[in-house]
Amino acid sequence: MEYQLGEFEELVLLTVAAQHNEAYGVSIHEFLTEETKKKINISAIHVALKRLEKKGFVDSRFGGITEERGGRRKKYYIVTALGKKVLDASHDLRTSIYQRIPSLQFAKI
Amino acid sequence: MPELQPPKWAQRFLRWYCREDYLDEIEGDLFELYSIRVAASSRKANLFFVWNVFRSFRWINLKKTQLSNNWTMNMFKNYSKIYFRRFRKETVHYAVNILGLSLGLSILFFILMFVYDEQNIDSFHSKKDRIYRVVNEVQEEEGLNHYLSGPNPLAKALKTDFPSVEETSWLTYFGSHVLAKDDIRIADRDWAIVNRGMFDILDIDILEGNPVKQTEGDAGIVITEEVAMKLFGRTDVVGEVVDGSRFGTIEVVAIMDDMPRNSSYQFKELYVLNPDQMAEGWQNFLNDWDTQFMQTWVLLKEGTTPEDVYASKDQFIEKYIAEENKGKYDFYLHPLTEVHLGSTHIKNGGPAPLLSIPYSDREFVSMILIMGMLVIFIAALNYVNLSSVQALKRTLEASMRKINGATNKHLFGQLFFETFLTVILSYVLALLLIVVLFPFFLQIANKDFGISLLFSADFIFYHVISILIIWTISALLPALYYSQLKRSLLVMKNAFSGKGDLLRKGLVGIQYALSIFLIIGSLVIYRQLNYVQSKDLGFNNKNMIVLDINSGAARGNFKNIVEGIKNNPNVINASTSSRVPGEWKDIPIANVSKNLTDDAMEFSHYAADKYWLDTYDIKLLDGENFTGADQSDSLYILINEEAVKALNLEQPIGESVWVMSNSDSVKMRIKGVVENFHFESLYEAIGPVLITHWNNHIRSIDYFTIKYAQNPKETIAHIEEVNATFDPNTPAEINFLDQQWERFYEAEESRSTIILIASIVSIIISAFGLFGLINFTVERKTKEIGIRKVMGANVQNITTLILKDYLILLIISLVIAAPVSWWLFGDWLADFAYRINMSVDLFVIAFVLVLIISFTTVLARIYKIAKANPVQSIRYE
């Protein structure tokens, strides 16, 4: 089965899976900025989440209202079975290709 | 401490654009991020919040407007689907509509481009709103005349006397000139004499050098790269010198770029005069208020108008103009933007530089614009007709929609939407047509610009406006028909009511009246120009070569040159004269009177040798030609028939008249009378002509004319050879006489072709419309025709049945169009001194043409139905 999954989308999906049941926009943003050491705009994450949801890789639910959110609810995301399968497939593909790299000695850069 | 909040406006903006169901997530996250950052710096946090709001402004986050809500989208989807289904079903109908509209649109856009270009001639000068030419008004015998040449010192005096005048310059042309570098010589006509000020007035692009540099001698010269290449073989020639036939050895002070294509003048050489350093003779000439030679250009200061100059004009004229000319002389400022379209009142001639783009007039530009609108109007009428007929066929659809809850407004909207689709399709097709036909258009219109004009910012406005107008005009009536259909008709399947038949026929009538009007118009114009070009001019202008006399050497040796040229088997005859008929130069005037005390009459004057009449085939009606004896001939003259009339002579031969020059008056005897010949444009009536011998007291010779039998190339080589023998320093300036003559009519010919093509397209469009209508009639009458055939009708009966109504309609349109065109085009013809008559056959031809074109288009369709097996037609539906 073929799944369209962009590079950034994959990162977001992985984060959602990693922060199981606790993933929402800001948490994913913090996590990814931390891990990738790159500046990521929150709106890019929102777009990626919408796409993932449309493709059925994640599910969402609304959480409670908190004060620092200006009276808005949190939208939590959770990875679906399909999403997990896609991640597995992607991981397997990468690993299997990675393992085929002959063990060469690279000169120290 | 009050809680810190991100900027209110950004919040409002976010809430305005963002989808309700995404707002919790997006606004919540942005707030949360803000609250994390606000502790560090509230200003940075604010900025960051605003930045995020803008970054979130993405298509998928936007609120869906009404247009994109599902209801409306579905409606449009359905409309388009129905439209394209009908398109497939009624291909003929839609194809006719789209073809007609796209033809109309492409004609309209072509004409708009033409008009746009006409109106933007010379508009590239950055100070165009402040640039004026001085036009001199002179009260003369025959009335008030407008001239470009005015008193020579005018330029200088205007600048010193009027505070609102910023800069002035002469712009003058003396005839031909020659530039030489070593043994390379060039002579062309696109040159002018200017002052340094001209470079402040007009936008003349200087590539290298300084045009206003002070030079030695009478003048410096600015040349184009092309001229530099010709003379020097390179372009870095600033500071070098060239020899000129006009001002001796002169320095090249600058290299200029070619003038833009939409410039009235394409200068190749500009002499920058040093009036203060010139010899005394020149000084006297240039400072003489009585010599009206120089053309003057003026740049006004910013914020001033010609009125500021006129305010103190009276004192100015009082101060400078000689006593005897006061009251007869006046001047005004003619704006640069008027030069191309508003110069028809200015009398031709004088030492004006040669125009690269001949003057046109506003009347023609509006005429052709109206024409373009008429054509598109005809196309829109087509659409109205065919679509309202279609609307009637769609009773069932309309009723179904109404039953399902559509209001009249919805049905109305549906047809507007369909019309929009048609107009857009036609528009795309029209653009394709324009791109394909553009090279032909340029050729026909005698224009030179890029197709990018069509897509320029200025023009996109016209696109939008035309589409909107055509859309509205076309959609309104059919939409009314369609939406007003009675719901009760639903019960009858595809019931057809004859509603609107009269209106429809009325529209077809209007269409045909317009087409006939346009055809008559283009026939009149076409015939008139044809007439002008083939009219017996009273002299021969075919197989004639004109050689300009540009030097004293040629003038002094003219007899040898004439004889030398004649000495060749290709040459039939050769002669010399002061002017040639049909040349671009003005024909000078000589004052003639019967008695010295009488008021002098103005005769156009030619000086000629004894071969001149023969060379030009001008008929001698009475008396004798010159004999060739220089001394005795000098006191004889020839006159034309008009002159005999003007002088009121019974027996002209042997009579004596006074011929006056500036300095003296000489009594001369009439030796012969020649037939009238057209020496100017046929716009002007033939006036009295005086022909003196070359050896006269008024004017010297300026041209050779050579009549050749065949082989113009060899003849020209021979002429050049002879010219070089007697005048080695001046290159021969050779022209064909009929080419010169055609200059008068070139512009008009291209205009008449445009008009002709536009009117042919208008008939084709009308024919399309008729085809569509008849197609519909035939469909409607299929059953009727079947029954008639069964009852014994033949093909002819059936054809008559269908065409009869339309024939009557055509006749009615003719009756409407004929008097209008009679009146309008008769008026146009009145401008010509020599013109065709508005004859009945014009109307017959126009009518028959429309008849043939329309009926041949529909005949095949009718024939098919008339021949068809009646069983099939009765089974129809």
Automatic annotation (TrEMBL), chain A:
Q: What highest taxon heads this organism's lineage?
A: Bacteria
Looking at the record, the residues that make up the Transcription regulator PadR N-terminal domain are: 13-88
Which Pfam families did the record assign? PadR (PF03551)
Tell me which positions the record assigns to the signal sequence. Answer: none
Q: What is this protein called?
A: Transcriptional regulator PadR-like family protein
Q: Lineage of this protein's species? A: Bacteria, Pseudomonadati, Bacteroidota, Cytophagia, Cytophagales
TrEMBL record, chain B:
Enumerate the spans annotated as ABC3 transporter permease C-terminal domain: 370-484, 757-870
State its location(s).
Cell membrane
Write one Gene Ontology MF term. Answer: transmembrane transporter activity
Keywords, alphabetical: Cell membrane, Membrane, Transmembrane, Transmembrane helix
Q: Which Gene Ontology cellular-component terms appear in the entry?
A: plasma membrane
Report membrane topology. Multi-pass membrane protein
Instruction: Indicate the segments forming the MacB-like periplasmic core domain, all copies.
Output: 95-310
Residue ranges of the TM segments:
94-116, 364-384, 415-440, 460-481, 502-526, 754-778, 806-825, 845-863
Q: Name one Pfam family in it.
A: MacB_PCD
Q: Check the record and name the NCBIfam families matching this protein.
A: perm_prefix_2
PANTHER family registered for this protein in UniProt:
ABC-TYPE MACROLIDE FAMILY EXPORT SYSTEM PERMEASE COMPONENT 2, MEMBRANE COMPONENT OF TRANSPORTER-RELATED
Q: What is this protein called?
A: Putative ABC transport system permease protein
Native organism: Ekhidna lutea
Organism lineage string: Bacteria, Pseudomonadati, Bacteroidota, Cytophagia, Cytophagales
